[in-house]
Each structure stands twice: as structure tokens, then as C-alpha cells.
Specification:
The chain is mainly α and 76 residues long. Helix content is 75%, strand content 0%. The model has no long low-confidence stretch (mean pLDDT 93).
Length: 76
């Protein structure tokens, strides 16, 4: 496991104090913060990809064609 040493400014120190007020260690709070930031960035990338697909005319035409085929398969 890699060890990371960082210097924190007063704003980060206050934030870390707030994140550890419930008894979590600074290490646990920092791990959680990094994972939360990573998930948010990953989710934003997926959202951007979905928006790009939704805006692509070729993809939209394919979706309409699939919907049309599925409509033909409905029993009622």
C-alpha cells in the first residue's frame, strides 16, 4: 500500500476536523473523500457519455428502429 503525505492549509484543516468530529480517523475521512470524488467524476463521465449517445442522430434512428421492431412483436 502506498503512503501519501500531504500538507493541508487552514481551510482543509477545518474541513478535516468537521469530517472527523464523529470519531472517524483523519485517514478514514480522507479515504472516504477521495472515493467520493472518484465516484462523482466517474458518474459525470458516464452521464456525459449517455448525453452524447442521446444526442447522436444515428443512435436515435437505431433506437426508433428497435422500438418499431418490438412493437411488431407485441401480442396485443
Amino acid at each position: 500500500m502506498t503512503v501519501l503525505t500531504i500538507e493541508i492549509d487552514p481551510q482543509m484543516e477545518a474541513a478535516l476536523a468537521d469530517l472527523t468530529v464523529d470519531g472517524d480517523s483523519p485517514e478514514a475521512a480522507i479515504r472516504q473523500a477521495v472515493l467520493s470524488a472518484w465516484r462523482a467524476r466517474r458518474d459525470e463521465r458516464v452521464r456525459a457519455q449517455a448525453e452524447a449517445i442521446a444526442a447522436d442522430p444515428d443512435d436515435q434512428a437505431e433506437i426508433r428502429a428497435i422500438h418499431s421492431e418490438l412493437d411488431d412483436l407485441r401480442a396485443w
